[in-house]
């Protein structure tokens, strides 16, 4: 589990500190302020490798470099394993173009899975991926991690081991089909995880179809199917982006845990009971119904995946969705969960730990400090209402030229607001009061 990171002269701010909660950590903020960067740093803190260093085809994320090479840069991190907490500072060494590592084999943070915004994944397994150091710099001993492009997730991943290409993963299409044919525990695990991650439509959750589908007469592959809410079995490659994203997540979780169990058995070690999930744009491609279900499902999925009620998960996720924040209100525990906000203040990026407060309705989340909108409406409606409010309080100096009088404001309100908008009663009462005073 990741306890904290402290950045100096790295990233969009001269200094950033994050003290993570042990279970749920949600990060919000405008585009370009560093949410994905913080997730990359969290991955590096847990695995000691930047995702793109492991895969030349990976387009997401960049290795951290000092904001200014003239000033010292460092990343201080604290990670808790099953038995101890370790903390160390990693300075940047310009002559080596690398971050100085810690001597000796590190702690075991558990199984780490990073869901990238572009549909790719990175997986670090304490039984298959660890590092060693020479002269204080990181030197990889085994395959340092498994990094999948979005295509690799579906078609499989090859890695280089001792100069030879080795198949590390068969991919969703081949593995899932094989598990289904064998009627194995892997197939049941995949079905259970898929059912939990996909929200119920009516009384039915997302589940595998009854058999396989073919894409064409010229494609010999048996493609696993999913049962849609309207009762049809659809080949997974023909499903929507949202369904495919959930299926890919279910597969990566199932595959990573399966391989972890196999590695633990081969090494004579116990499986980990801790999983860290990093998730960039957790709501990507998901309908609001699914956005509202994804975080509660991820908090529960590890127990389903491992069949261990005592297994723990730490989720660190970046989001732009007010529905995601609204969805966790019933589960949010201030002892185990945190909300972080990235903001631009006086031209500088600021990261703060936001005190948790229920907002209830999604509109209230939109206008809260988490998202900072003045109105939960269109830009045009926001401007018209602000002009109307200025007119009602007699502040004509605040009126834009195109809304300089009552008639212009009224015409614009009629154009941009629906008839049932709650602002109308205030405006109508104001108009009637103005008429009565004449």
Describe the structure.
With 438 residues, this protein is of the alpha+beta class. It has two domains: 2-165 and 272-366, P-loop containing nucleotide triphosphate hydrolases (Rossmann fold, 3-Layer(aba) Sandwich), CATH 3.40.50.300; 379-437. The protein is built from eleven helices and 20 strands. The protein has an eight-stranded mixed sheet, with helices on both faces. It has a five-stranded antiparallel sheet with strand order 2-1-4-5-6. Strand 7 and strand 8 form a beta hairpin. The chain starts with a strand and ends with a helix.
Cα-atom radius of gyration = 26 Å
Spatial separation of the terminal alpha carbons = 69 Å
User: What is the name of the CATH class of the largest domain?
Assistant: Alpha Beta
In CATH terms, what is the fold-level topology of the largest domain? Rossmann fold
**In percent, how helical is the residue content?**
25-40%
The number of helical segments is: 11
SSE class: alpha+beta
Mean pLDDT: 86
Instruction: Give the full name of the CATH homologous superfamily of the largest domain.
Output: P-loop containing nucleotide triphosphate hydrolases
Total DSSP E strands: 20
| Beta-strand share of residues | 25-35%
Shape: globular
Number of domains: 2
CATH architecture of the largest domain: 3-Layer(aba) Sandwich
Report the uncertain regions.
55-61
Strand order of the largest sheet: 11-8-7-17-18-3-19-20
For the largest beta-sheet, the strand count, sense and barrel status come to: 8 strands, mixed
